What we know:
mainly beta
Amino acid sequence: MGSRGGVGYELAPSVYHGLIGTTVPKMMGAVRSALIRIPFELSVDQLSATGSLNLKMRYDDGFVAYLNGIQIASANAPSDLSWNSGAVRGHPDNLAVEQESFDISPHLDQLKVGGNLLSIHGLNDGVNSSDFLISSQLIGGGSEFLAPSALRYKDQVTITSSGTLKARSLMGNQWSALTEAVFAVGVPASSETLVISEIMYHAGEGSDYDYIELMNISSTERLQLGGIKFIEGIQFEFSYGIDLLPRERLVLVKDLDAFHQKHGEEITVVGEFSGNLSNGGERLLLVDQSGQIIRDFSYSDDAGWPQGADGEGPSLILKYPESSPDHSKEQNWRSSRFLGGNPGKTDATRFTGNPSEDSDGDLIPALLEYAMGTSDQDSNQSDPLLVQRFDHQIRFSYLENSAAEDVALIAEVSEDLRNWKPLSAKGVRVSREEDSHGKIRVTISPKESIASQFLRLRAVVK
């Protein structure tokens, strides 16, 4: 379509009032893209007088711009652009209404005398988005003037986020060739600062709903992710300019529309990966720009790995991610508390209240009830603790609330009720069986028969 004024829609009048000249309400619920054509004419005199070229854009949520068929600028666009692609991330309304300038002077040679065509591929971040806006303005200037987007700096320039800096110098009335350099703000991601904190590898609705979450586990450092990439299991390379603040999380998805349908559009999604997360488990390899390993491990659906994450609805959650646990060990993973997982944030719980309280009078204090996933308001709960004896051997089992990452459960044994030691030492078998509610039945069985002993379960706040 051609464009006079902005192109877009909004469900209710908002900040875009007066900016939309061509409304496209049929986009909602149907497509993520709008293809816009803006023809214009240049005379010989106009073309010869044009020494700089600037594209000014208002966009919600992304775009790719072309001048006479050559790409000249883009924002929030996927690397594998198709006719109905969406933006890889949102562009908030308060930013979308502000004109953003793109110096496209390097593409001056694409202009010609007579008919020219500016084409905009507008990208919304989801088919169910409540609004959309693309507004463009192409400004040509004389060679003796600065571009309309230029700012005068008298002091040093402070770069606050990673990205590509493009510059040219003016001597007399002649501009130098455009030069550019990539500047990274923050420290490079490494195995000490970046973890894979959640994997939805077997979504019940199908592989389009799969995703991976990454987390910056540093409490102080901002990570720059440009150039790191997945090269095994899935394929995805992070663009320069993507940073991750301390303790922040971001998500890679198989299909952006499916993810937005399931989880909404408020979660930070940096893009769609190619390949598939195997339902049966596979190797994931994440490396930095130089090929150094950040994460290299294999997840699985074998016994010992959380079974709730294998197609039953929950995702696979890394326990205590801030401690950078070994991703290859199944005991460091658990099923999410919620169906569909918990992308973009933690679902770990925190204990509140009096740890010694016993509201239901069952002689189990509140902290221990919390650690086992039982309620201190209900004394009629089935066997949270069991001690059984089989042919001179004991079997001690208890429930464990896998989401209670602020508390550790320790089974202990004593012969005199004074001196206690952990039961899960050498000479015992330990099994862990997960139910569909995120609770784990831990069973400890000594390999050899023992004399009469005392057992206890202790909850320790971390």
